[in-house]
Amino acid sequence: MSVQTSSNRPLPQANLHIATEAPEADSRIRSAPRPGQDPYPTRLSEPLDLPWLNRREPVVKGEEADGPLSAAQLDTFERQGFIFEPDFLNGEELEALRHELNALLARDDFRGRDFAITEPQGNEIRSLFAVHYLSRVFSRLANDERLVGRARQILGGEPYVHQSRINYKPGFEGKGFNWHSDFETWHAEDGMPAMHAVSASIVLTDNHTFNGPLMLVPGSHRVFVPCLGETPEDHHRQSLKTQEFGVPSRQALRELIDRHGIEAPTGAAGGLLLFDCNTLHGSNANMSPDPRSNAFFVYNRRDNRCVEPYAATKRRPRFLAHEPDEAWSPDG
Length: 332
Fold this sequence. Notes:
By secondary structure, the chain is an alpha+beta fold. It is built from eight helices and 14 strands. The strands form four sheets. The protein has a seven-stranded antiparallel beta sheet. Strands 7-13-9 form a three-stranded antiparallel beta sheet, covered by helices on one side. The longest helix is centred in the N-terminal third of the chain and has 15 residues, at 91-105. The protein is globular.
């Protein structure tokens, strides 16, 4: 694995558990939530007095003995909010997934469907959701104990697939993704109560500096950054192409990046990136001729199943947020 950083200068190490001083009592109503209130308020009409709020839940809930990840890997995940495992898949297994990816992207009957997201300009498929229901090959991967065991170990409980998709950035044309925390969206629009979810992204094509690799802000998972702007109706129709709501302020991003920098894991196809649901991440456009694609599975803890959304009028469609043990179908 290669990790590109935003700067070679030493970055000050901050304790993000104590992000800012406590606000004055008379400003409490616009700052830290009171007991019984939503601990992660977002999509606000005006900013809070604090740039971010402290995370309530532990990052790693399991132990080394609970799964395949070593103590060093768990420590890295705890500290950074992500780990990268090169050569997680290879050989015929990787080739079978790449063949299935191409077959799914070539399906004309998927174009125009709500679970198939195209580029902001053009008809090229950008993301294909609920892929573990659309493909037996990706269903086996989503339920593979090598992934499920890692998720169980990090989450400290039995996981289920909250969301799955394949992402594809064609050469020259693939657009980027704005900075965001997945948990902010899942909390606001899907009703995910707490930070008990982890994402597993398997690189299906080589990731390098120029084809829009995922960029992450290490340490950002330890705080929650509330976002401004009321959630529009059917927001997912726009946000899956270009996200404007649920995006952290530039001030908060600047402060967090000044403290911890930006890292972009790159490497050959077959690598596995595990990252916490609250780690801030985004990506640039693909400026190279080489496509970039990955399979993406979100594992949520079963006792953290979604409720009513915290900052939207209704939950998003089921292809974006599955229930435990449900049987979703593209035909309803």
